[in-house]
Design a protein that fits this description.
Oligomer: single chain
Shape: globular
CATH topology of the largest domain: Creatine Kinase, Chain A, domain 2
Number of domains: 3
Length: 656
């Protein structure tokens, strides 16, 4: 190892043993020098790098990057780009388009890609923020970093009020479980709906479905396992340590999870994981699908965000204490109460953060939680909270040992709570699992929202403690006012929807929750986003609904234009005016009716397209014409033989 200034540089290593991540030992963004830049560039050049890139997270939801020659030292920390060419909700336009890309000073890494001729292309990636000429955030990262600062400050205030050292460092931690589907590339290329929309717009239910419950954690096909092995190795070289991989519930569905990190780094690493999966899957003749609901009737894909708080010297603040001494119970229940208060007060805003076109199809079906924001605590914590409400001693909270009735039994430690997969926001021992986040999302948005609303609650708690209120009395007050946001039952039942409405929880359509960006001012009060930034975010998110719907409607019309000639050709080959069998006549009639109905819905789609201008008209088209078109295309697929229907079936797509 060599070290110059405050930058640690690895010594050169040969070939595939290179570590393509440079961990910086201090904040070089604030204490920059030409020597540090030269160290980083020399390290990169020794690894075959010719360009560096400011890698950022625009409001489109993915990542973007601008490459500069490694010879151009002047723009290493900051460069410019055209802000008006990204979705900005009006913050930038062609006549006022300047945008700034600024390296955020975190660890840098080298990304390797292969060209079409097999040559390795290596780029030095600088994780960056993206802002406008006036200083407005044009990305998801700036608000996330602001929310981290507000959360750290508020949590430190509460700890100080409880008698802990002043100024303890606090941060949120995040573990992201990324779900995805893998399909054969040659079949993907023939499915125009997958190719243009990322999800299937029709598909007859497959013979090999998930009803046998034999895919979850099953042995992965060799091609898939080889692909994921290479993904993990590539990520580990770039500093992303992997934790878990396994087959998911639906055929063709899988999950990868990195080691938990501080939230901003975890978000960066998740986006890098998604990029790497897309690239390497292609090398194995596969395509990676991150759509929340690529296949109707099968499990959708989420991005389960395991969120917690960690304090310097104290560790995980949401770890259930084993001892009631030293005020640990008070601390734990105060932070637990802060989360309960935050989710109950700002549930619509939390829903808005996970409101995407794909999630609208996913939530509430096939093991995805419904879009009613409630918290699951489990029986043990529920009993403890009820005891606090009743003014009784808190029951002893400890993990139990499970008896298996074996003579030589291995020790099995049971958790305090069961796992509730129907809950959108479940406590899981020492963290909350935010299960409602969609697989394709940049989870910076949902985590920024969660950080902000919890920070607001912690600030309020710190104020009350400063006024002399006792900690457990404050916990009791919060639970009395906000425990209606806790539900430990089955979130799928109609009884829960009715109960949620009686409790006053937000139960309208997911798309309507976007309005919370205009109605809840917590982002402005906590100085995480300005009113202009919030209005821009609302505009971008609503526009995404409209553009997604328009693309899907146009794609459906394209599919119909291909399927109808096949129906007509098959009818002409089959038709015989002397057909005497009633069943044959019925089959021919079905062919004719399906053809006419497809032409009719295609005409209606063409008429409707110019009228889709906002979220309401977009939602109407998704509930009506897209559903009708799916049913008719499914009927056409059922009527035509497999070698006549022009597109691959679900059975083919889901078999690797």
């Amino acid at each position: 190892m060599g070290q110059t200034g405050s930058t640690t540089v690895d010594s050169d290593m040969d070939g595939e043993e290179w570590v393509d991540m440079l961990r910086l030992s201090s904040d070089v963004l604030k204490e920059s020098s030409e020597m540090e830049v030269e160290d980083i560039i020399k390290w990169a050049e020794n690894r075959g790098v010719t360009h560096y890139a400011h890698w950022f997270q625009p409001l489109s939801g993915g990542t973007a990057e601008k490459h500069e020659s490694i010879l151009n030292r002047e723009e290493f920390y900051q460069s410019e780009t055209d802000g008006s060419s990204f979705p900005t909700g009006g913050l930038r336009k062609t006549s006022t388009s300047r945008g700034y890309l600024v390296w955020d000073g975190t660890d840098v890494f080298i990304r390797t890609q292969r060209s079409s001729d097999g040559k390795k292309l290596r780029v030095l990636i600088l994780p960056s923020i993206f802002c406008s000429y006036e200083g407005y955030a044009l990305d998801y990262k700036i608000p996330l970093l602001r929310s981290e600062e507000r959360l750290a400050s508020a949590a430190s205030r509460v700890l100080s009020a409880l008698g802990y050292s002043e100024g303890l460092s606090v941060s949120s931690t995040l573990g992201i479980e990324q779900e995805f589907f893998l399909v054969d590339k040659s079949l993907f290329e023939r499915r125009l709906d997958l190719k243009f929309c990322g999800r299937t717009l029709y598909g007859r239910f497959p013979l090999r479905d998930q009803s046998y419950e034999d895919h979850y954690c099953s042995t992965m096909p060799g091609r898939v396992l080889s692909c994921l092995e290479k993904v993990e190795k590539r990520l580990e070289r770039m500093g992303v340590e992997m934790k878990t991989r396994h087959a998911e519930v639906a055929p063709g569905q899988y999950e990868l999870t990195p080691v938990y990190r501080e939230s901003p780094l975890a978000v960066d690493q998740n986006l890098l994981l998604m990029e790497t999966l897309r690239q390497i899957a292609l090398e194995y003749g596969l395509v990676c699908l991150f759509s929340e609901k690529p296949f109707e009737g099968l499990n959708g894909s989420g991005k389960h965000c395991n969120w917690s708080l960690r304090a310097e010297l104290l560790g995980n603040l949401l770890e259930i204490p084993t001892e009631s001494e030293n005020g640990e119970y008070e601390r734990f229940f105060l932070f637990l109460a802060a989360v309960i208060r935050a989710v109950h007060l700002h549930g619509p805003l939390l829903r808005a953060s996970i409101c995407t076109p794909g999630n609208e199809y996913r939530l509430g079906a096939n093991e995805a939680p419904p879009p009613i924001m409630s918290i699951y605590l489990g029986e043990a914590l529920d009993r403890a909270c009820q005891a606090i409400l009743d003014g009784l001693p808190i029951p002893y909270l400890s993990r139990r040992e499970i008896e298996l009735e074996l003579k030589e039994q291995p020790k099995v430690k049971g958790s305090l709570e069961d796992r509730n997969r129907t809950s959108p926001f479940a406590f899981t021992g020492n963290k909350f699992e935010f299960r409602a986040v969609g697989a394709s999302q940049n989870c910076a948005g949902p985590i920024c929202t969660l950080n902000t609303i919890v920070a607001e609650s912690l600030d309020w708690i710190a104020d009350q403690l400063k006024l002399g209120q006792k900690p457990m009395e404050l916990v009791r007050q919060i639970l009395a006012e906000h425990y209606k946001g806790v539900y430990n039952g089955d979130n799928y039942t109609s009884e829960w929807r009715e109960e949620a409405q009686r409790r006053g929880l937000f139960c309208s359509s997911l798309g309507d929750s976007l309005l919370a960006y205009r109605e809840d001012d917590v982002f402005q009060r906590m100085k995480v986003m300005t009113s202009k930034e919030l209005e821009a975010l609302f505009s971008v998110r609503e526009d995404n609904f409209v553009k997604t719907t328009l693309r899907e409607l146009r794609t459906v019309n394209m599919l119909i234009s291909i399927v109808v000639p096949h129906l007509m050709k098959f009818f002409n080959e089959l038709f015989n005016p002397e057909i005497s069998s009633g069943r044959q006549r019925e089959y021919v009639t079905q062919l004719v009716n399906c053809t006419n109905n497809l032409l009719d819905v295609s005409r209606k789609i063409s008429d409707l397209l110019p009228t889709i201008k906002d979220r309401e008209s977009s939602s109407f088209a998704r509930r009506t014409l897209l559903v009708t078109a799916r049913d008719l295309l499914n009927q056409a697929e059922s009527l035509l033989p497999g070698d006549v229907f022009p597109f691959p079936s679900y059975d083919q797509l889901l078999s690797l």
